[in-house]
From TrEMBL:
It is found in: Cell membrane; Membrane. This is SURF1-like protein. Belongs to the SURF1 family. Keywords: Cell membrane, Membrane, Transmembrane, Transmembrane helix. The chain crosses the membrane at residues 12-30. The keyword Cell membrane applies. It comes from the Bacteria. Residues 261-276, 283-301 have a biased composition (Basic and acidic residues). It is a multi-pass membrane protein. Residues 250-310 are annotated as: Disordered. It comes from Paractinoplanes durhamensis. PANTHER family: SURFEIT LOCUS PROTEIN, SURFEIT LOCUS PROTEIN 1. Coiled coil: none annotated. InterPro entries: Surf1/Shy1, Surf1/Surf4.
Length: 310
């Protein structure tokens, strides 16, 4: 019944169905990994206020040379709560323009914190609004505290697509906080990620607004994973359904090809004559016309007969 499955057409369809299903399962697994990765990031964001901060040096690799950035910690350590102690270097302070908080445009102020070993980490001290004169005008920035400072914050990965760096208002001015790009402007090695400040000793100026952290949309990846797995199952079901339909059609008597019948010409001629005779019998009879035909026939017969003698 299912012998047709070993024909080239059905073998090709089976191979294509299996290959497509495997690819869709792999795509679903990849989306599942993205879901797990993003969920872990959200867990670190949510737990930042309740967990103990770990030393920065236990999360970020120590940078090597002056003017260069260390390795990125990767997404698996993004938003980890860390603590670090050092001294602010305000001569290389950075203002990242065009940054939005609660729909207001302003600046994020990033100041290098130099550690005792001579390395530095960029600290995002917070957001300040742009002045009324325009978004490109120099912002009012509270000065960084002098002396030793202890910072607690969350690891922020370097931003992509580096923008041009200018010197404005006594600071480095840029649009993107791209750590490797900014490290070239520094006279010391710089860690490969920066830190969003949440606490500081001595306390940070209240003029700064804390940078909000958006959660990852993990459930979207979870939904995509389920969709890909469903597509894989549907492809296999469709193949099985089509094979069953083919098998049922091949086994039914109606599906067998009809054998051509030999034509009997004599019988066909008899059928035609019989049909003509039946059609003639079904025609209506006109009695007046029939009587006229009979009278005409009788008159013609009398004229044709010889005349008698008196």
């Amino acid at each position: 019944m299912y012998r047709f499955l070993v024909t080239p057409r059905w073998l090709g369809a089976a191979a294509l169905t299996i290959a497509a299903s495997v690819i869709m399962v792999m795509l679903g697994n990849w989306q599942l990994r993205r879901y797990e990765e993003r969920s872990a990031i959200n867990d670190r964001i949510d737990a930042a206020d309740s967990t103990q901060a770990v030393p920065l040096t236990s999360i970020l690799a120590t940078p090597a040379g002056a003017g260069t950035a260390g390795d990125s910690p990767g997404k698996s350590r993004a938003w980890t709560k860390v603590t670090v102690t050092g001294t602010y270097d305000t001569t290389h302070e950075i203002q990242a323009r065009g940054r939005t908080v609660d729909s207001d445009v302003g600046f994020e102020i990033v100041t290098p914190l130099v550690l005792t070993d001579g390395t530095a980490v960029l600290i995002d001290r917070g957001w300040v609004p742009a002045p009324p004169t325009g978004a490109s005008a120099a912002p009012t920035v509270p000065p960084a505290p002098t002396g030793e400072v202890t910072v607690v914050g969350q690891v922020h990965l370097s931003e992509s697509r580096p923008a041009a760096i200018e010197h404005r208002d006594g600071r480095l001015d840029t649009r993107r906080i791209a750590v490797p790009h900014l490290a070239r402007e520094m006279p010391y090695p710089v860690y490969g990620a920066y830190v969003l400040l949440t606490e500081q000793t001595p306390a940070e100026d209240t003029a700064f607004t804390r940078i909000p952290i958006d959660h990852e949309d993990a459930w979207q990846n979870g939904g995509y994973a389920v969709q890909w797995w469903m597509f894989a199952g549907m492809a296999l079901i469709a193949y099985g359904w089509q094979a069953r339909k083919e098998a049922q059609g091949a086994g039914s008597p109606e599906a067998a090809p009809a054998k051509p019948k030999l034509r009997d010409r004599v019988a066909e001629a008899d059928r035609k004559r019989e049909a003509a005779r039946a059609a003639a019998l079904r025609e209506p009879v006109d009695r007046v016309e029939e009587a006229d035909r009979k009278a005409a026939a009788e008159a013609e017969a009398r004229l044709a007969a010889p005349s008698g003698q008196d």
